[in-house]
Design the sequence.
């Protein structure tokens, strides 16, 4: 995009204005000093990794192989158009995600979680999420197991195991509440035990229990509860005492929460995905904070816009996990 942009003209660079995304030359784009809500994707088509100001962009793409952060390597420059289409499909969620990622990068961990939660609650009341959810369904979610988190202690280490393998450890409200309570107890334990978080069955977690999405009737109260009982916040507060072992699918909150752990080990079969944008949402379990602080906001935006899985090897290269191997 070239040419002069004035303040009124900048209004169009937004979801309400009709241009929620800009695909620009990474070597030449200079972000104007005015509010732009559009997602700015910078592309390096020649793979030259030009000098640029990373903060001018929400996502940086290059055809250079094995490009360093904050770049994302793509095989074909045409992928930028597919990402732009994804932003247009859920324009409010995409532009809010970009703004949240920019803002939370400058905040403390706790304040950043608050901003994410406010934005998440707003999108839960929005048209894009309503379109994904479809007509209201009064069917009740399947019952959670009596003990969705298994707690085992061996001297100075506590192992917390997500234990609902029948649902692939879907993060139901009951599971999140049980996990938060266990983490809070570990924080209060005068013995200061180490904590290992893992999942039972074929995978760590496929993320939020879909049947529960959109069932909260008071979005303000949901925000208050979400921030009060944040598993990501509790895990982060444990500091070096907390580790996570991740295997199989780690989707949505199934990576957002464990990404707060000080040490993250992936099994060779682990894979990671942030699918929230296709639902008209942004991460709501801490992902704009935990994942972004592990891999950077640009690569987090790529995960959101693309919805693609990344495997254990790429996660290690990007810093989402610290090692690949057996459980500690």
Sequence:
């Amino acid at each position: 995009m070239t040419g002069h942009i004035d303040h009124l003209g900048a209004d169009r660079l937004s979801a309400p204005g009709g241009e929620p995304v800009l695909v620009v030359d990474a070597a030449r784009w200079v972000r104007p000093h005015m509010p732009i809500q559009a997602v700015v994707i910078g592309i390096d088509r020649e793979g030259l990794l030009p000098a640029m100001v990373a903060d001018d962009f929400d996502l940086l793409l290059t055809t250079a192989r094995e490009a360093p952060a904050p770049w994302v390597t793509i095989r074909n420059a045409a992928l930028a158009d597919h990402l732009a289409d994804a932003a247009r499909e859920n324009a409010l969620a995409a532009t809010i995600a970009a703004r949240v990622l920019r803002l939370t990068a400058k905040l403390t961990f706790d304040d950043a979680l608050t901003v994410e939660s406010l934005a998440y609650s707003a999108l839960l009341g929005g048209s894009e999420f309503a379109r994904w959810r479809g007509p209201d369904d009064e069917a009740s979610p399947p019952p959670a197991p009596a003990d969705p988190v298994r707690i085992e202690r061996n001297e100075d280490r506590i192992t917390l195991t997500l234990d609902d393998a029948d649902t692939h450890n879907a993060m139901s409200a009951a599971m999140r509440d049980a996990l938060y309570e266990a983490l809070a107890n570990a924080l209060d334990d005068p013995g200061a035990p180490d904590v290992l978080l893992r999942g039972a069955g074929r995978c760590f977690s496929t993320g939020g229990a879909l049947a529960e999405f959109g069932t909260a009737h008071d979005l303000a109260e949901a925000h208050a509860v979400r921030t009060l009982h944040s598993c990501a916040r509790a895990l982060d507060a444990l500091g070096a005492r907390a580790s996570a072992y991740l295997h199989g699918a780690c989707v949505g909150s199934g990576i957002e929460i464990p990404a707060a752990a000080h040490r993250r080990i992936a099994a060779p079969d682990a894979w990671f995905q942030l699918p929230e944008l296709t639902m008209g949402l942004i991460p709501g379990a801490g992902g704009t904070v935990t994942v972004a602080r592990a891999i950077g906001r640009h690569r987090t935006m790529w995960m959101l816009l693309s919805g693609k899985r990344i495997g254990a090897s790429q996660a290690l290269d990007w810093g989402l996990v610290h090692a690949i191997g057996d459980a500690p």
Observations:
- Residues 7-89 form one domain.
- The longest helix spans residues 109-124.
